[in-house]
Specification:
Layout lengths: L1 H40 L4 H8 L4 H13 L8 H35 L4 H4 L1 H21 L5
Helix pairs in contact: 1-2, 1-3, 1-4, 3-4, 3-6, 4-6
């Protein structure tokens, strides 16, 4: 039983980075596909389409920081806290990256047809990013309560 609890602790330690990476991969791929499609249909603005398609990569950075914050000796005392915080923060980062990729793809498609709304079309992506920041900050704050 002790080994299982310790294994969960190790899983929780790496979960924010791994799940954030998976979400960033999916989100960047979704937005990148929209950017490539927009480049085929327009003669300008290609740089901004590529820039927007990279927005979901920030969740990986948040996951790496949470992983380093949770990094401590994994014992029977620390493992449950590390597992809970790491897994839940990782799931939040994964979800926000995927949905941010979808909102970025929509922004690219909308600004392709109507370039004057480019900045405004990014507002939903920024709102989704805000939820990732909330999960990131709460993970950092709560992890301070784990002994070790």
């Amino acid at each position: 039983m002790n080994e299982f609890v310790i294994a969960l602790g190790w899983l929780g330690l790496y979960a924010p980075m791994a799940l954030g990476a998976v979400g960033s991969i999916i989100g960047c791929a979704l937005a990148g596909q929209a950017a490539i499609g927009a480049m085929l249909e327009t003669e300008s603005g290609h740089g901004k389409y590529l820039g927007v398609s990279a927005m979901p990569s920030s969740q990986l950075i948040y996951g790496i920081v949470v992983m380093f914050t949770l990094n401590r000796e994994i014992t029977e005392t620390t493992a449950p806290g590390v597992f809970g915080i790491g897994l839940l923060a990782g799931l939040a980062l994964l979800s926000s990256a995927v949905y941010q990729g979808k909102t970025c793809a929509s922004a690219i498609n909308a600004s392709k047809a109507k370039p004057e709304i480019f900045g405004l079309s990014l507002a939903p992506s920024a709102i989704v990013e805000g939820f990732a920041v909330f999960a990131f900050i709460f993970a950092l704050v709560i992890s301070a309560g784990i002994p070790g």
